[in-house]
Input
Amino acid sequence: MPKLKAAITGVGGYVPDFVLSNKLLETMVDTTDEWIHTRTGIKERRILKGENMGTSVLAANAIKNLLEKTNTDPDSIELVICATVTADRTFPDTANIACTKVGIKNAFGFDLSAACSGFLFALSTGASYIQSGMYKKVIVVGADKMSSIVDYTDRTTCVIFGDGGGAVLLEPAEDENGYHNAILKADGTGEKYLHMPAGGSRKPPSIETVQNKQHFIYQDGRPVFKAAVTGMSTAVKEVMAKNQLTKDDISWVVPHQANLRIINTVASMMDFPMEKVMLTIEKYGNTTAATIPLCLNEYESQLNKGDKIILTAFGGGFTWGASYLTWAY
Ligand code: UT7
Output
C-alpha cells in the first residue's frame, strides 16, 4: 500500500488593522526609518489593540479566513495545533480558545511552542496525524501577539516584531503532491541569546520581575543573526540533499521573516534568485510563528500545483529547520 501523504489544501491569514510604521517608532524610541529599513528590511508592522485581545483573536481570524476560503464546515475539523510563544494564558491553550471563537466543536487542540520555528514543528506534527491515517482534517495555525512581550523603550527589539496569524488546512493528499519531509533541530545552548527572563516556572512573576522589565523579549541580536544564517542554510542544504533536489528544481523558498539581511544572505549562499523567495517582512515585520503561513497566504495566487517549495525558519531555543513540500492545488 502506498504511504499516505498529507497535503496543504488551503491557507488563510489575518493581520490587525493598526499599522505601526517606522515613522511612528521614531517618535517612541531613538531610531530612524533609515536605520530600521536598511538593517532589517522592515517598513511597518501590525499591532493588535484593545482590551482582552490576545493571540487567540489572531489565530481565530486566520482560521476563519481559512474555513471561508476553503468552504470548510467547522464541524468537520478534527484537530487544531496552534504554534505560538504568546499564548492568551499559560493555560488553557490558545488553540482551544480559538476553536471556540470560530465554532469548531468536534476537534481537540493544543499549543506548540518553538518560537520562530513553531510553524515548521507544528506542520510536521499535523502532517504526521494525517500520514498515520488517524485524522483527515487538521488545521495548523501560527499566531503571535509579539507586541505583548516587546519593550517599546528597547530600540534593539521593538523595531523588529509585529502581530499576525496564518493557518493551513491539512488533508490526505490526492496524488503525489503534498508534505514530504523536514529537517528539524533544537539546541538549548541558544537560550542565553534569546529568551524571556521571567514569567515561567523558573522565575514566576513578582513585583521585582515587573520592575526589572523581565517579562519582555531579551535578544542578543548579533549571535542570533549568525546562528540563523548557519542554521537555515544548513537545514535547507540537508533537506535538498535528502530529496535529491538542486537549486533549479525549487519553485519557492519560504523563509521565516526575521531580518531581510538574514534572508538575503541565506538566498545568496544557496544561489536562489530573490524572485523565488517569498517576502512579507517589509509590511508585517517578524510575526514569529505566523511569518511562514502569512507568506503562503500572500503568495497563494502565484502558486501552482506541483511547485517544489522549501520552508525554513530559525528562532528562540535555538530551534530551526527546513521542510520540503510540493504544492497540492
Ligand atoms: O526571529 C527570531 C530570531 N531573531 C533574529 O533572527 C534576529 C537576528 N538579529 C538581527 O536581526 C539583528 O541583529 C538586529 C536587527 C536585532 C540588530 O541589527 P544589527 O545590525 O545586528 O545591529 P547591532 O545590534 O550590531 O547594533 C549596531 C548599532 C549599535 O550602535 P553602536 O553600538 O554601533 O553605536 C546599536 O546600538 O546599531 C544600534 N541600534 C540602533 N540604532 C538605531 C540598534 N538598534 C537600533 C535602532 N535604531 N532600532
Observations:
- The chain has two domains: 6-178, 180-326.
- DSSP finds eleven helices and 13 strands in the chain.
- The domain at 180-326 is CATH 3.40.47.10 (Peroxisomal Thiolase; Chain A, domain 1).
